[in-house]
Amino acid sequence: MPQAVTNVFQRIGRVIAGFSLAQRTIAIIGVAVLALGIVALSSWLTRPTYTPLFSGMSASDANAVVEQLRSSSVPYELADGGATVLVPEKDVYDQRLAAASAGLPGASSGGYSLLDKMGVTTSEFQQSVTFKRAIEGELAATISSIKGVTAASVQLAIPEESVFVSETVDPTASVFVETSGNSTLSPKQVEAIVHLTSAAVSGMKPENVAVVDQSGQTLSAAGVGTTGGIDQQASDYEARVTANVQQMLDTVVGPGNAKVTVVAEIDHSVNERVEETYTPAEGAPPLTEQTRTDTQNGSSSNAGVLGPDNIAVPSAGGDGTSESTETSKTNAVNKSTQSTSTPAGSLLRQSVSVAVDAGAGGDLSTAQLSDLVETAAGIDTDRGDSIAVELVAFNQTSSEAAQAALQAAKDAEGAERQAALLNTVIIAAAIAIPLLAGLAALIMRARRRRGADTEFEELFGARPPALSALDAGATAAIDQAPTTPLAFLETTPDPEPEPDPEPAQVSLERRRAEIDSLTRQDPKRTADLLRTLIDDRQQV
User: How far apart (Å, rounded) are the C-alpha atoms in residues 360 and 393?
Assistant: First the structure.
């Protein structure tokens, strides 16, 4: 090994050997943390990037793909509830080719692929049933691709065609969807499923499609549509009107001082009305015109009137002519036909009842409040709507109890947060205080050692050979080192002055004089400095 490297290691060894117990503990902890950080960083940097191999697979296909990856010893991860398989990015294309060669994922057994298996001897009934199954499979696959839908099943009820119009029956469909997790489909998604299904079958109306999810909730009822039924329509209308009136009253009398109840009656029947209107066509010639004239010529005598005793009174005779004319015209007319279909769910009537706290009503009268509520709720008296507004004294016991319970819950939550924060602070302090105390002790010890060295040098000049031997680890040199008597310990009389001392000797004499003066003024401090310096050197 080169000498330079050996010197570096020896120097490091000497530095470590000079560490105290606390310094060695901190150094070991630091090295361990650094090693763990290096391992974690290298693990994160060398972790492969995973890319989807296949997504949207069924459970059976995902299981087959996972078995294929295990046999190939390729790491993988599952996502989207097992419907997506992730593999390292470098292995994506190789594993796709390997899965394709193994026939994975399996081809769908439904859809129009069923028609490929039909032979020439297939009966007409088998053809119709297979065609219906193919449409059901294609619809199920399409619905399953909607976001939030993991699986779908479609059942179609297509009646046989009939030459009799009166016997025509509309086709219907039922759709079962399974959503991911506990999520539910939005109304727009349900409407999209309904229209997608109805458009795939000739003659199917959207209201004849029923949609149900895995929890048994009816998302679209047959004959009603995607609104969720008449009861749901009534509930939505009542909630909307209640919110409008409540918002207005909260602004007028203050929040919590009014209670609104709305009851709506919804028509469950479907009404169809056909209205035909005929109007004359002005300026148009008649379509047909027919005139008939009858003329009669000849003599006639007027019969007499029977007189008394049945004696006829003679009448005068004369010639008579009669003529009659009859005209028939067929005129052009305008015909207007208007067909109106009213689905179920129209509002028949509604009733609104409002109770206002008498203490919060102020100078407002019942008539004023009734006018406000009538306008906000859209009351129509011709339709049979009714409204009732009363000023009453509210019972505040339950509200006060609820407010007290809410405040207690808030206080308890705040106390829990404070307790959690206090526990965190205590744990952090329990960890930080010993570390800070150890660090402060090391710093103070280092400063103390440097201060002792400085004061010793200021007091006694150069370090004695015995202390230098302690620094080098040579304890045996202490006994062999010559001793130098200190100036302040000598009791002999002052020597005679020597002529012209050298500058170094003058400086040494001045320092010894200062030491002598300090020793005489503060002997305790001098002893403490010597004791501290000797204790530090003995620990080394």
Answer: 9
